[in-house]
Each structure stands twice: as C-alpha cells, then as structure tokens.
Fold:
Amino acid sequence: MQYEFPFQDALDKLNVLLSQNQFELLVPNTAVSSQQTSDIRLVYLMNDAVESFLVFKEAVLTGTYLKEYEGELEARLDESEGRYVLAVYQGETVCTLFFQNLTLEVHLYDYSGTGHFWVKGYEYLRQLEYRIAILRDKREYLGEEYCTEQEVKLSYLAEFPPLNYCSYPAVPDKYLVPSYDWWQVSDEAVEEMKYLGKEADDKSLLRWLKIYEFYPKRAVAKKIARILHTSAHSAVVELIDHKLKLATAEFGNRVFDKDEERHINDLKKKAQKRKTELLQNGKHVEMLKEEPFVYAKDGIESKIHLMIWDGDTRNEWVEVETFE
Structure:
C-alpha cells in the first residue's frame, strides 16, 4: 500500500501483526449482534510489562471472524465514502472492518516482581531472563518512548547469551521463540554488562567480558553463564535485579475486580506468613506474583510464589513454594 494513511504509525504496527499471522480481535457483543459502531480492539503486545491494543475507532465488523483461526493471513486496506475498510482473509473466510481511525492503546505495568516457574534449575536467573526478554519486546514493539532510560539500557541484556535464552531460558524449548540470533552477542549488551560489572566491583567477570568482547564464541559465553550462578558473582545478578526494580517503579500494578483483589490479598497473607517463618530461620526469600491480564482474559489464575535461597556457599540454588 503506497497511500500514506493519517494513522501510519498504527498501520505499521498492524502490518507487523499481519506479517506474523496474528489477528486477535476483542469484539464487543454489540458489534456482533446489532452491527452498531463501537471501538474494536486488536491485541498488539501482551505480557507482564504491557497490555496494548490497536483500536479500530467507530468500527463495524461484517463477514465471519474466526477467533480460533491459526494460519496464514492476507489483508487489504482501502478508503471508501469517508471511512476506512480493512478486509482480512483467514483462509477462504473473510471478515471486514469499517472504521474511522486506528489508534494505539497502551497500559504499562511494573513487572519486576513477577514470577513464572516453567523450567527448573537456577530459577532466579530464569526470572531475570524472562523479565529482560519482555522488556526487549516492549522496546522493540512500542519504542523507547514507552521505556524508562534505565529500561532501555537493561533491555540490551536480552542480546547477552550468558544470561538470555541460550543459557537460562524461562520457558521450555518447545515454546521458545528466540528474539535474537542464537549465541550472538551485541556490542550494546557487552557494554552494559561491563558497566554493571564495574559497579558491582566484579573483577573476574570483567576479565571474562574482555575475553568475550574479542572472542564472542559459544564456549566463552557458556563459561560466563556458569560463573553467573555462583555465589562469588551474585552481586552483579542482584544489581541487575535491583536496577530493574528501580527502572519499573513508576509503573503501576494491575487492578482487578473486588473478588479477584480479595483472592490475591488472601494469597499474599498466606505467603507473607510463610516468608516470615523462613526469614526467622535465616533464609533469604523473595515474594513474586503471577497474575492474569486485565483487558483480555487469558485463563491465567493469580498465584504468589516464594523463591527461597538454600544458603549454598558456592552456587546460588533456590526452592520455590507456590500459593494458589
């Protein structure tokens, strides 16, 4: 399409979704039953850090929309009689959206305290990998203007194989969708890790980073990955976690209906009681949350996790207790 639409930025984002064969509409009942105009959301980027949508303003949906369709998409956008017309082909089926404008709706959240325990072993590093990965998606899909200055810096750690999905994937292999080439490190990632290593006064890590900078091979990445889970290098890992907490502090928490909030508070009370017991026994404990989306139901139920360090003097191992 060579015509420059007034909502070109939002259209570029729509094209990204269509190129990935993604087209998940949240259609109000009135838009289906009565053909009345209404705002219709299209899911854009959804994760613990952000819930975002492309919104077709004053829209009418016609034809057949296949909610469960998984396959290739084709689309065509035209302008007719003072409104825009988007035809989306789901195989042999077509649905058409008539609308007045296309806008981006974004809700940002503090994700530094989220936890998902899908893979065992060095769970605390996998949590960092997950948070940094969704941060990179936030930067890539929405732009740096939706990130704090510190978030932008930390987001490049998603391109650091000793810490990313190459070494500590947060999800099982069958669900892994790499956002960066396997075992390839970016200059920005190395520079950020060097900065963090200096701040943490980790001279050994800095020496390995210097080697990695001149010899960015898998063997060196694996060596750095191994030392990151040792107690001797825990300071730099804790520093990354701390900086991420500070970077996201300005974003709010999700707010649910009264019943869900009551349920979450009950879980927190139980988890806090257990956390107090563990702290009294000299354990290091971190409380994390797992929660559903606010604007799109995803089937996730609220949970509270306790990540408990076992006190090993050489390797940083944790156990996880879950309240649901």
Remarks:
- The chain has a mean pLDDT of 93.
- The chain is about 35% helix and 25% strand.
